[in-house]
Amino acid sequence: MNYKDIRTDAELNAFMTSPSLSLIRTVGKIKGDIIGLGATGKMGLELMQLILNADKAAGRERKYYVASTFSNPDNIIKLENLGIKTYKGDLSDSAFLKKLPEAKNVYYMAGFKFGTSMNYQRAYHMNIIMPYLVGEKFKNSNITCFSTTNLYPKMERKIGGAVEDTPIDPQGIYGWTVVGRENTFNIISEKYGTKVALYRLAYAQHLYYGVLVDIAKMLKTEKTITLMSNYVNLISQRDANEVAIKSLTLASNPPRPINCCGPIVDLKELIEKMAKIMGKKVKVVKTPDKAGKINCDSFSVKKFGAYRDKPEEMLEAAVHWVKNGGKDWNKPTGFLSNHKY
User: Fold this and answer.
1) Alpha-carbon span 306 to 324, nearest angstrom
2) How many domains does the chain have?
3) Which tens digits make up the pLDDT trace of 28-56?
4) CATH number at residue 193
């Protein structure tokens, strides 16, 4: 199915969890059982299902686990129905961590982002202390730690996006606690020889949330959109999850940072294309600030191959989804935070 042809929740789930041939081959290099820690958020459920489907396609068997607070109990049922063993509890509780099974491979997806500036104590606890406790528990495992490209400085388009060795410039409580999260795994890696991949993700695009959905919703009501940034990286969630899964094969000591962001797109041109598809007239005012949060993932593309989903397909899919009243999680990315819809 093409991205833009998706019309139902079932079709969307099937699309987002269909593995590429490249992923089916790659999961064969990941030996041993897999646990997803905090794998119940925007990406986690689909990431685990994507791994499962890739293994099934290749005829491989292993054990799968997910440990989380499970604020939505329905996710326990969803995962258990897939054959994934679940553990409900607090990952910052040492007693709970001791109960978790040993797994050779760990996807660490837990963290605290929204509201960090108003609750710095929780931010430090969840983004720095909890990762260290997890690292101690799974010191003998290979770990992919979910991180963010938000820790990089703004870049001008003519210079290109931030790469893995670009000096960091974190902003606010969230940015600094993410640096803390990465460094807890650096400490664990140095202390025990643990192999770690630091998966630095920009905004992933889904039809339930993302920059494209934010824009499509704005186009319904706004005639003028004033940009905070002139450019944006675009990558679909299934491509982002594939890179996250594959990144475990590059886990190393010291930890290896891996950017995942997709190509850089001109935001004014993007909005005008979406407006045309939606049948709306819009005026786009560019920002005079030539620098923006743009990134480069040439290392990842070289290692893992080209993405399946193109920006043109993603923007068209988002327009059709929003225009036809498709559901969303009402979780604005904040990339266009000066707008309300």
Assistant:
1) 30
2) 1
3) 999 999 999 999 988 999 999 999 999 99
4) 3.40.50.720
